[in-house]
Amino acid sequence: MSEYVITAPLQSSLPVRGSNKTFPVRRVYCIGRNYAAHAIEMGHDPDREPPFFFQKNPDNLDTTGEFPYPVKSSDVHHEIELVVALKSGGTNISVENALEHVYGYATSLDMTRRDLQGEAKKAQRPWEIGKSFERSAPCGPLIPAEEIGHPDKGRVELKVNGEVRQEGDLDQMIWKVPEMIAYLSDYYELAAGDVIMSGTPSGVGAINKGDVMECSIEGVGDLTVTVI
């Protein structure tokens, strides 16, 4: 057995509610503009066009409850999202069988350096500089689907310092969870450990140091994150 020439990076993982075991994360896929009202507020047509995805890095996921305000940005936005964690995968997965591959769900945030994302869009460049930075995906514990089923409706809400900023419902997703899994599997070989961040409702906005973000997805769980 060969040895690494440097110390191997730690395996990124998410806690599982009620368990001392953790869920190892392989990849993080994020769907864009998956709620019609959010697509409109970002200046896009909400019609049901083919979905598109970008990626965050596994080690962007953070469960500390703190979000360090990132460097090189003065316009950082919150985006509450449902996380879908896969226990198995494959290619060309059918919509009808897609949920068989889901391990569980969590409440999360897709934090975005909106100014840097905007510059990338104007230059027709990838979004990673605005999306895939350190600790840019605060996340709560996973709840196994065998405990809560597969939520397809339920209130989605984010408060900043007690004021409601984002609100919507899981049933407002343009592309539902089974459809996201099936679509991704046409382009990638999905596998156990893959995570999908499923888009955000309208009301995204800027945060500042000292703000407290309170997130909740009905039937899934709560997440509180302080900006430091």
From TrEMBL:
Q: Name one GO molecular function term.
A: acetylpyruvate hydrolase activity
Which superkingdom? Bacteria
Q: Which UniProt keywords apply?
A: Hydrolase, Metal-binding, Pyruvate
Keyword Cell inner membrane tagged: no
| Segments forming domain Fumarylacetoacetase-like C-terminal | 28-227
Which top EC class applies here?
hydrolase
Output this protein's name: Fumarylpyruvate hydrolase
Identify the gene encoding this protein: nagK_1
